[in-house]
Amino acid sequence: MTAVVLIPAYNEEKTIGTTLEAVFLIADVAQVIVIDDGSADATGDIARKAGATVIRNEKNLGKGAALQLGVEKLVAESASFDIVLLLDADLGSSAREAERLLGPVMRGLADMTVGILPKVPGSGGFGVVRDLARRAIREHGGGYDAQAPLSGQRALTRECLQAVLPFAEGFGVEVAMTIRALKQNLRVFEMMVDMQHRTTGKDLPGFIHRGMQYLDVHRTIRELARE
């Protein structure tokens, strides 16, 4: 079985190179697509030199829209793959752990795996966005109790990918993926992975980021309720 990797990236020149080095070490990865989402730095150039296919947005469109462009490129190329691996650009060398996400999907034990990352002391807010997402998944996903509802580290079968499209906009993309998969009676399996990426704390930038997350997730939940 072969996997393709989609990595949305916005101003990640400090980490994208190391992330890609780790991703290319994962067995069964056939192609890596980096969606440079309007970066003002050298993210795209570094990704291209590392061997990734790069899609360049002239302006920042947000995570969901960036991932959608990646899928559209796969469709346009009639790409052959069995699994799509979604990863964040700032995982660095810990991106190698994504290999663990592929295992249950390749063995037919899950349609979607979701990575649960270790808690970093002092990071995060007060859990408002996470709790909002978990409540929505329980309500619309048949009572499923998600431990990592906002995790962007996921592996999906090709069939599961079709079931969760189109990707929701912005930071609501992960919540929508989980809910749509569960509504289709697909198997969602969360698992611990030893990954690390940039975290936000209880400071002004952190609260601004989580405020944007909250608005995106809340909008996505309303849209899913109308589906």
Task: Please tag this protein with its features.
alpha/beta, 227 residues, Spore Coat Polysaccharide Biosynthesis Protein SpsA, Chain A, 41% helix, seven-stranded mixed beta sheet, 8 helices
Structural notes for this entry:
The protein is an alpha/beta fold and 227 residues long. The chain has one domain (3-118, 151-198): Spore Coat Polysaccharide Biosynthesis Protein SpsA, Chain A (Alpha-Beta Complex), CATH 3.90.550. The chain is 41% helix and 17% strand. It contains 8 helices and 7 strands. It has helices at 16-23, 43-49, 63-76, 98-106, 128-140, 158-164, 173-183, 204-226; strands at 3-9, 29-37, 53-57, 83-86, 112-116, 154-157, 188-192. Strands 3-2-1-4-6-5-7 form a 7-stranded mixed β-sheet, sandwiched between helices. Strand 2 (29-37), helix 2 and strand 3 form a beta-alpha-beta unit. The longest helix has 23 residues, at 204-226. The chain starts with a strand and ends with a helix. The model has no long low-confidence stretch (mean pLDDT 92).
Summarize the structure.
Helix content is 41%, strand content 17%. It contains 8 helices and 7 strands, in the order βαβαβαβαβαβααβα. The protein has helices spanning 16-23, 43-49, 63-76, 98-106, 128-140, 158-164, 173-183, 204-226; strands at residues 3-9, 29-37, 53-57, 83-86, 112-116, 154-157, 188-192.
